[in-house]
Amino acid sequence: MNKIEHVGIAVKNLGKSVPLYELLLNASCYKTEIVASEQVNTAFFKTGENKIELLEATSDDSSIARFLERKGEGIHHIAFAVDNILEEMERLKANGFTLLNDTPKKGADNKMVCFVHPKDANGVLIELCQEIKWV
């Protein structure tokens, strides 16, 4: 794993949260994106080398909706940039980590992603992110 790619924060309402984070971070939201496969609407911020992703559920049965129901708004996951997501997934599986998906899937912000179950990371949901290279 190379570096923290972003921190994901679950929010109830992007319409209210985006202006709040723009003020808090003194930075504009540079991108919003719906990730239909995850039933989530996202908003991204960048301050220096750091990125924050806000996540709003688009369905009551999405994982973000369930997270908000159980825990309320707050940090949802920490994402790490990797050079080769397939190799990293194999390394983690070989070391006994439980992956939430068997193959990488398209995520937000031009990334292929895979999640590590929080039970194997002291309660923290870990996301692996690999930039999609367009040829």
TrEMBL record:
InterPro entries: Glyas_Bleomycin-R_OHBP_Dase (IPR029068), MeMalonyl-CoA_epimerase (IPR017515), MMCE/EMCE_epimerase (IPR051785), VOC_core (IPR037523). Pfam families: Glyoxalase_4 (PF13669). The keyword Metal-binding applies. It comes from the Bacteria. GO terms for biological process: L-methylmalonyl-CoA metabolic process. It is an enzyme of class 5 (isomerase). One of its GO terms (molecular function) is methylmalonyl-CoA epimerase activity. Residues 3-131 form the VOC domain. The keyword Phosphoprotein does not apply. SUPFAM superfamilies: Glyoxalase/Bleomycin resistance protein/Dihydroxybiphenyl dioxygenase. Belongs to the methylmalonyl-CoA epimerase family. This is Methylmalonyl-CoA epimerase. It comes from Pedobacter endophyticus. The lineage of its organism: Bacteria, Pseudomonadati, Bacteroidota, Sphingobacteriia, Sphingobacteriales.
